[in-house]
Give the backbone structure.
Amino acid sequence: MARPASGRAVLEQAKGVLETARSVDELKMAQAVVLPLELGLTLRQTAAVIGVSPGWACRLRRRFERIVQGEESPKPPRGGRRRELLTPEQEAVFLAPYLEEAKAGGVLVVPPIQAALESYLGRPVALSTVYRMLHRQGWRKLAPDKRHPKADPAAQEAWKKNSPRNSQKSSKGSKEPAPSG
């Protein structure tokens, strides 16, 4: 025979949460308390109604009791930057001199920023980390490169004039008959 459900001290609070629950987790925790105490359901029956395993139903119930008693705080919502190196405000302060220089017409070069960030944090960071930080602070590359830095305009023009493609076009367009031989 199963032992009787405990937690009558938090029953009224659980009923209140049933009406005002803002998340599925809150609702399931309150149901895990109310169903056995009000309807006399077993742990297995309660778990079937809530849609979780019996072990999880027991955890939900105990967790609700601990939250009500103040032993545990409610779980914070998922999301956010859990492994941030700097807060957004610290990032803005760190990047301010570099971004001001870039706005004044200078070029924003990322590897020196990476080296400065590594010395500031005292640990190595990936180059992608710096790019993501710049993106979060609103930096974007305003002018794309129009040409390759090692490009030779004279060689390009010479190739355009003497390319095999151009010589084929001129031979196709000619009206003279091909020499027979």
